[in-house]
């Protein structure tokens, strides 16, 4: 195999085809969609950012950066965490469109909202 045919084959593979017996055959490639994730910090007795707009299928991860425990509790009870100590995380994947208000059940003045559009 000379250098040209090696590079041509590499290019063919990169564009989703494999060179075989002088012809091209399509190859089914499964490409994973990039993970959609967003982060919310719990710090200073607040959810930061306070409101996030995301597409369906997005996973939100809350991380407690405070020294006091906090929770993440949906107003409609569709999701809720246990008490999160310092550096603990809680994740939830939002699969359907809608507005999802939430609060800390230990400190009800702490509120936030996830808006799912798409």
CATH architecture of the largest domain: Sandwich
Ends: how far apart? Answer: 49 Å
Domain count, please report it: 2
- Give a quick account of the main beta sheet: strands, pairing sense, barrel closure: 4 strands, mixed
Mean pLDDT: 81
Provide the spatial order of strands within the biggest beta sheet.
4-3-6-8
Classify the secondary structure makeup into a structural class.
mainly beta
Kindly state the number of beta strands.
10
The coarse overall form would be globular
Helix coverage percent of residues? 10-25%
CATH superfamily of the largest domain: Cupredoxins -  blue copper proteins
Radius of gyration from CA coordinates: 23 Å
**Are there runs of 5+ residues with pLDDT below 50, and where?**
1-32
- The DSSP helix count reads 1
Under CATH, the topology of the largest domain is which? Immunoglobulin-like
SS strand fraction: 35-45%
Textual characterization of the structure:
The chain has 118 residues and is mostly beta strands. The protein folds into 2 domains: 1-31, no CATH class; 37-116, Cupredoxins -  blue copper proteins (Immunoglobulin-like). It contains 1 helix and 10 strands; from the N terminus they run H-E-E-E-E-E-E-E-E-E-E. The N and C termini lie far apart (49 Å). The relative contact order is 0.19.
Short description:
This protein has 118 residues and is mainly beta. The protein has one helix and ten strands, in the order H-E-E-E-E-E-E-E-E-E-E. It has a four-stranded mixed sheet, with no helix packed on it. It has a four-stranded mixed sheet with strand order 5-10-9-7, with no helix packed on it.
